[in-house]
Amino acid sequence: MTCLPSQSGKKLGLVIDLDTCVGCQACVTACKEWNTGGHMAPLTDIDPYGGQVDGVWFNRVHSYEHTTEMGGRTVNFPRSCLHCETPACVTVCPTGASYKRASDGIVLIDEDKCIGCKLCSWACPYGAREFDTDVGVMKKCTLCVDRIYNDNLAEEDRVPACVAACPTSARHFGDLGDPASAVSQLVAERGGVDLMPELGYHPTNKYLPPRAHAKRAASVAAPALEPVRAEGGFLGWVDRMLSN
Amino acid sequence: MHPAFSVVFFTTATGAGYGLLALLGVLGGFQIIPPDFWLGLIGMGLALGLIIAGLLSSAGHLGRPERAWRAFSQWRSSWLSREGVASVITFVPAGLFGIGWVFFGRSGGWVTIAGLLAAIGAVVTVCTTGMIYASLKPIAQWHSRFTLPGYLFFSAMTGSVLLNALLQGFAIGSKTLLAASVLLGLLGWGWKVTTWRYNDRLEIPTNANSATGLAGGTVRSLEWPHTEENYLLKEMGFRIARKHSARLRQITQALAFALPVLLLAAAFALPWPFAAMLSVLAAIAQFAGMLVERWLFFAEAKHTVTLYYGR
């Protein structure tokens, strides 16, 4: 049913730290690797070794130059499904293929019901949904629903593949509906933001803006070395002998 | 937005078809157009033919057309589903009206009721089509108060010009319908020009800053996540050069509005068969012009995902 469920309170999602993301694309490839055999498999590639490469990815990392009065900086920006609280991609779906889970808020697609009308991808302002031209259905991030509840994995591995792969810990996974959770506290502490809040989709995922520039300049040079004072006595004699 | 021909043809054809169906249902049901086998057969055939051709074209746009029946299930939340339901339900009174009015040569009683229900169904279906586009917040040019009335006006306009051509062809044209077609043509023209002017001045609150959550200053795209165009750019990153847009707007105005209005005005003064020839020509020109209008409706619409790509 594409009507939205009444929320249970649990809102699983990601918190992405734009301060520490280095744009290494590890989350992108880890996502592709896991999900091409996962819940929404396959993540089809078209002409992968040719000149017109195309394919389905759930996670894409952009790079931007953010210039303010304080100067400019490069910001690496991972973009994936935000598992919105009011996802229009779900309500526009004519078949019931798109749905939002009442239990944890994850937005999923039932591939067996999808007719490939593409309307959900038009309704998503964030470009989270990508059409698989080979299978003829829409695909999207599952928040690794087949990892996070997977009893066959060690408990520390029950996080989305992108979070597990991140070498700088720029990606955090948790329950954003619980104000006491680590991710909620991180968002509160760092002033996490919604993307395109003016559109009213109420994304669950939050982005932590880069930290402010330090007001003073960084100390670049080490203190100058002081000249060695001439010593008397035995050590002075050793110094003089070695200096000859 | 990518102007897929299947969807451009679908919205144009069903718009004209439902407009014609609504007019035939009302005017035939109330005996303003007397029952006539050949007129009815061609008129209802044209209306239902345009609708069916359009619906089949839209099904061709699907990735998995064999599952299209599932689209009738989510009418509680989805305008696309509502459109599917409304279009299918409308076939019932339209079919009954066609049988009564065309094959039994009757009007009044159940035929009138069926005609009116078909007209209501046609209007509702066109509204649902308009709302599919008007409800999409990421596309500011569609998510506006101009979209839904536009679909209704253009449906009425193309429907009345088709009906006028039909009646003129059977030498039973009416000056009232001619005048109505001219007025609807002028209304559609005015509405389209106003819509373009509104869209050209549109100040969209969503920008690269709010899209990335980076407050203040400027956000410039340094590098895309991929080297080739992906689905997002092919489907939603379609761009049209300003000079082509300006030229196509002129073509739209000439074919869809100016030429039909002039031809129909000339048809006022001319006797049959010249009036009929001009009326048919006006309908053909207008349909071609509306295809260009609908192509532009898609091509000029900008989706927020393009902000991530610095477009």
Automatic annotation (TrEMBL), chain A:
It holds the Pfam family Fer4_2. InterPro entries: 4Fe4S_Fe-S-bd, 4Fe4S_Fe_S_CS, ET_IronSulfur_Cluster-Binding. GO terms for molecular function: 4 iron, 4 sulfur cluster binding; metal ion binding. Residues 12-31, 71-103, 105-134 form the 4Fe-4S ferredoxin-type domain. Signal peptide: none annotated. Keywords: 4Fe-4S, Iron, Iron-sulfur, Metal-binding. This is Fe-S-cluster-containing dehydrogenase component. The lineage of its organism: Bacteria, Pseudomonadati, Pseudomonadota, Alphaproteobacteria, Hyphomicrobiales.
Automatic annotation (TrEMBL), chain B:
Pfam families: DmsC. GO terms for molecular function: dimethyl sulfoxide reductase activity. Keywords: Membrane, Transmembrane, Transmembrane helix. GO terms for biological process: anaerobic electron transport chain. The chain crosses the membrane at residues 7-32, 38-63, 84-104, 110-134, 146-166, 172-191, 251-268, 274-292. One of its GO terms (cellular component) is plasma membrane. InterPro entries: DmsC. The keyword Transmembrane helix applies. This is DMSO reductase anchor subunit.
